[in-house]
Amino acid sequence: MVKVGIIGGTGYTGVELIRLLYMHPQAEIVAITSRTEAGRSLAEYFPNFAGLSDLEFTEPASTPFQFCDLIFFATPNGTAMKVVPELLSAGKKIIDLAADFRLNDAAVWQQWYGEEHACADLLNEAVYGLPEINRAKIKDAKLVANPGCYPTSVILGFLPLIEQGLVDPANLIADAKSGVSGAGRGAKIGSLHAEVSENFKAYGVDGHRHLPEIKQVLNAVGDNNVQLTFIPHLLPMNRGIHATLYANISSQDSTDLTQLYRDCFRKEPFVTVLDAGVHPETRAVRGTNRCILSVNRVSDRQIVVLSVIDNLVKGAAGQAVQNMNIMYDLPETTGLETVGLLP
Amino acid sequence: MVKVGIIGGTGYTGVELIRLLYMHPQAEIVAITSRTEAGRSLAEYFPNFAGLSDLEFTEPASTPFQFCDLIFFATPNGTAMKVVPELLSAGKKIIDLAADFRLNDAAVWQQWYGEEHACADLLNEAVYGLPEINRAKIKDAKLVANPGCYPTSVILGFLPLIEQGLVDPANLIADAKSGVSGAGRGAKIGSLHAEVSENFKAYGVDGHRHLPEIKQVLNAVGDNNVQLTFIPHLLPMNRGIHATLYANISSQDSTDLTQLYRDCFRKEPFVTVLDAGVHPETRAVRGTNRCILSVNRVSDRQIVVLSVIDNLVKGAAGQAVQNMNIMYDLPETTGLETVGLLP
Amino acid sequence: MVKVGIIGGTGYTGVELIRLLYMHPQAEIVAITSRTEAGRSLAEYFPNFAGLSDLEFTEPASTPFQFCDLIFFATPNGTAMKVVPELLSAGKKIIDLAADFRLNDAAVWQQWYGEEHACADLLNEAVYGLPEINRAKIKDAKLVANPGCYPTSVILGFLPLIEQGLVDPANLIADAKSGVSGAGRGAKIGSLHAEVSENFKAYGVDGHRHLPEIKQVLNAVGDNNVQLTFIPHLLPMNRGIHATLYANISSQDSTDLTQLYRDCFRKEPFVTVLDAGVHPETRAVRGTNRCILSVNRVSDRQIVVLSVIDNLVKGAAGQAVQNMNIMYDLPETTGLETVGLLP
Amino acid sequence: MVKVGIIGGTGYTGVELIRLLYMHPQAEIVAITSRTEAGRSLAEYFPNFAGLSDLEFTEPASTPFQFCDLIFFATPNGTAMKVVPELLSAGKKIIDLAADFRLNDAAVWQQWYGEEHACADLLNEAVYGLPEINRAKIKDAKLVANPGCYPTSVILGFLPLIEQGLVDPANLIADAKSGVSGAGRGAKIGSLHAEVSENFKAYGVDGHRHLPEIKQVLNAVGDNNVQLTFIPHLLPMNRGIHATLYANISSQDSTDLTQLYRDCFRKEPFVTVLDAGVHPETRAVRGTNRCILSVNRVSDRQIVVLSVIDNLVKGAAGQAVQNMNIMYDLPETTGLETVGLLP
Lengths: 343, 343, 343, 343
Hints:
Shape of chain A: globular
CATH architecture of the largest domain in chain A: 2-Layer Sandwich
Number of helices of chain A: 10
CATH superfamily of the largest domain in chain A: Dihydrodipicolinate Reductase, domain 2
Distance between the termini of chain A: 34 Å
Oligomer: homotetramer
Helix content of chain A: 25-40%
CATH class of the largest domain in chain A: Alpha Beta
Largest interface: A-D, 47 and 47 residues
Order of helices and strands of chain A: EHEHEEHEHEHEHEHEHEEHEEEH
Structural class of chain A: alpha/beta
């Protein structure tokens, strides 16, 4: 039984993490902290726990982290980096669901996140927690940087093509669409129902923080020559990311791309490759840790990959649990063997 | 391990039942029939099963029911009654998720469902599968009539008041609101996204089939003197029923109603009673077999009960699994211990 | 040409009022104030005006109200009452879309709105701006209290029954459902898309500010003996209110209720009465100043009235324009002759 | 006053056309035909007309087309072509909102629409009704092929770049997203609320009928060398198209693209170009005939154009009315001067 603490459990990533760990047969939630909601019961704050749980939010300062093996951070960016060194020193393992440890380069981090990194020396120690790439490293990691939601969907979608060097890395496009839970539970006008529903728009056309993260990973997989255009869009729904990925292949190439993808992900418990011409749907993965893909050659030169995940699960809390399972030698699918909720 | 067959698995009730049974540790799905989709794979038809299941829909006639202990009917009304007698004779147990065996009186059935009942003699043998009322009978039943979705939410909401005779039974009102999955997966204009979303309306103000079902059960609980006004409404969402129930109490009565409800449902694993003044939300029970209630005295005379369920789970497939668990002496919550998906 | 100023134009009521006045052939918007957005262009703030309008938000203090005939307040409750006396003294006419002048009794106002009323002496001078009741008074009014959204739908729905004394006034129920734009454009967690969509709940079961407003008006129409249970609910959609109204009639009464309603509203340009058994839909009135009703006798004693409006139009900005038209002797439908946007 | 007939008025394009023409000051609807709904009143069929209109659907055969100047077809593809020759002979003008006359080449038409064209000789007489390209021809046209919804948004978005030859025409990508009303009002499972809401997916990755239409128009504008990848997606909402367009520009080019677009559309009453970096939203154009664009240079080589329309208005019925206005020498914006409904 892994004893876990959750720092910052009042957002959507937090409540999903609590939900998954609550149902996990090998994990026990020892503490959930929240500065603003300390003293309040989880069941009152999140009504899906009404009648189920006696947990209460606690002040970070008075939280008995000494009883925890593993600490999850479900905090805003810039919070974990101020506390992690101390917790590591105390022998705790850490999974950070925010962006503090995702980039290797402190200068790049500062450029995109707007403040100096508080423990730049840990950036190279942290393991980027995408099991499909880094499973072996995650196993021994003390500090896991859980990937961003968009990066998870985009990297898994491009991975076989970049690994095999089949496409022009200088002309990649990721047209990505996310449900609004990806924007968090902060009280922002832009996330109101009356702003989001019956509406659709792009955002971040001038640049988005997930771009350097995706490029860093794809560059490491390939030959450090990735040029990516990444345009995120806001979907009028709660959960789900759909990435539509465009790449140019040599028109002489005749690889069976679906077979290539199936070979690449053969041993992956959470990645499914559909036949070409079949369209993955976000609802198929709702509430699950799965990624569903199809890869389509739509003309001589043009490949289109369709990739869906649940941004709160494979894109956040579920992937964090998958990482926990790996770190503690549990079967990787423990607590994650659910079928998507449809409709 | 209970071996189950599902007749009619292509609707929303069907896919939810398959989902729950697929994840159930003590059940095995042997066969799923569909006349229209025979030969097609479940994973292709319902994308949430892509990569998970090899099941195929089969023709009813060529389906090996001999290997099944229990048959679920997730068919339209009027289908099960034509086949059930034969299956009962063959020693199978039956849970019908449609309305064929919910009413005791064949004449009333015919009045509301528009055709003669095909096996009226079984109406009194069938057990109405609401465990909170009929647990003991369900245990020994061969044929369970799984309750309707609206009836489940309305009956549980009124139950303690009627049992205790605290309110005027001649002036009950149920203003009920349901997500559109309750209308089924038939291709009807009225269920189109562009008809349902950003819209709200009542329907069935002239009478709805669930009215006689509710009255029959409440009359049996009380003194056969229930007069109920039942107005259903269509919500612009997929899952969830919210019943707002109105009853008049003697103004001298000073019962602690919340305590009464908690006493009544003390042993029920799927019913939670909130404090008065707290508002149950449908999302709190999404994907779960739970009913959450609050009971509120809003004036000297007027009681307002708020009751929420997931129409596809406690209102259909989940309750059917709960009934299966009871019939097969399994812990009643087996396979149903999930936390609501929020958001 | 009526020259109008709008105080507080950054909410949903504000933008709808601007939209309607922008398209109104006899009104000219001279100024729109906003403390927080002063200096910002309307077209940048509300993208539906991009390319259409050069208006800018201005500071209230530097706004040339001297060029305005009529001032609309689309401000939060408690704002108008602090400014209105001065503007009235300056000879301006006022329509307040907030609640400051809706209640006659300053003590009741204070009880529900939590502060002392700043100009209680004006409460009896203000005219409640529901044209179907107060058209003659509105014509000569200097200060119009534009009705609340729920009150508009509920009062119009009960009006003929109360006027004619046909129902028991001591046992009225209004089960009302509103789209989330009724909660305003404030950045509140409870109004987030991920909280509202795929969810439904009641609120205010302990009491809602619109209750005293409805009772005051119905008491004035009837015999001051109204007892009303009013339960509001939040719909997962943006626009529209549906009130389901329950009343008890003497079972001997045989009035043709639909005819009664049609007679009552015969001259009303914005009220339509459907046949009994037909269900009004909120989308039928989306973007319009209309109220659509049906009245149904569902049993010997029980009447159910169904009433729909667009909460931002007939429930707010449209009714304000209707009041303006009356005050300035314009045809009452000027600028309001639109057909509902469907789908 | 233009006297118009509408053939096939029971779909979403039909009801929007009726709505716009009903409010149009210079048009009068003489007849609306429907084989299936003949004899039924418009007000009963489409509740937004309740209390407003006495029109009834009529049988095509018994419809007095002799009193019409102009006939709109809002029928499924393949219907108009069987009737248009006769109506043209009778001196009627025609605007077809379906696809029958959009392609010049009968063989290509047959390939994409699956049947032989019934009047291929008219294909070259028909004018493609995109006023921003063909205004002069539309003025004198007898037969206008109203453009498809996707083509309108994509063509307007690429137009200045192709006209000026600024981008590589062999590597264009249109990642387009449409609300579900674009799929029509047919009773299809794929358009059900419970299939569409809280879901997102691509479709037609193997090819979509709007691809040859877009290519034909862009080829005519440019040098007949357009290679376009067009991937449509289904949005969980009713109205609106957002096209995200990708093109490669020579990295030496330093044209001010926003200025180029503004110059190109300077005289267009329905096209607005936002500043680079600003994101058009579909709700800004809801219910309007407008197209809002921004053009963004996101890297040395990559241009991203964002383009939004309301698929039922500028993408269908509104553009048809715009074409009517042009054909009858009315001010082009007559009946179309509305502000988007927000929220």
